[in-house]
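From the thread on structure requests for the teaching lab: each student submitted one protein with a one-line request. Submission from student K.M.:

"Model BTB domain-containing protein from Armillaria novae-zelandiae, tokens only."
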Amino acid sequence: MFAEMAATIPPPHIPPDIPLPSPSPAKEVECIRNKNFYWETSIFLVGNELFRAPRYQFIEHSDTFRAMFTLPQADADAVEGNTDDKPIHLYGVDKIDFERLLNFMYPLNIIPPVPPRSLEEWISILKLSTMWVMTEIRNIAISRIMERHQEVEVVKRITLGRSHDVPALVRSGLVTLVNQDGGVTEQQARLLGWETALRIQWVRDKLMASRGYSCSFDEDQVRNAAPSAFQDWSFESEIFEPGASKWKNRKSRKR
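Reply posted by the TA:
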């Protein structure tokens, strides 16, 4: 009954000259960007493949990229890395090495069990972290490689240690070759260079003459014999000194 009565009540008459109240406009709220999770991205070209990744870890860990990304930019359209047509070219970098570094900095799989990284992955990370002065990442890579250094082929240990300034890898390779049955092989000598091979063999012969042919030689014994063989080769003569790496005092500067 009440519904029927309500239906018969006419709407109130509002004179046309009285304006209706309008809803108040919504107050605009100023948005701010979260300091930790509002990431800018850049596009990189490695070989013929494009990668798009956040800048954050590059700026946080690399002096090289920090300098690149923090320079004032006049025109956003002209800046490398903002579009596929104008990427940041990474010359002299292998795609697989770059992908492995990105996967370390921005892991795709975080749900356990996360498979351990292979030695080859850590070597890729070492290469690029050395190239781009990513000191903390480089130190992690060296630590993981040294945990399994005996699994790295002996010549590769020496060449990798030389090219990326990792004295511990060179030491490991020298000690292994000094103790290797029959000494340095012809194939190893070709890969190392004949002069290096002859100097390693000289260390081996010197130790065997003084200690006996049935002995094996530890790092301390090789350390004592190596300087005289490599006295005019600064890197090889210094690798047995504590803190020999030129990286020992380097730290990535935080923003």
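TA comment: The mean pLDDT is 86. The longest helix spans residues 194-211.
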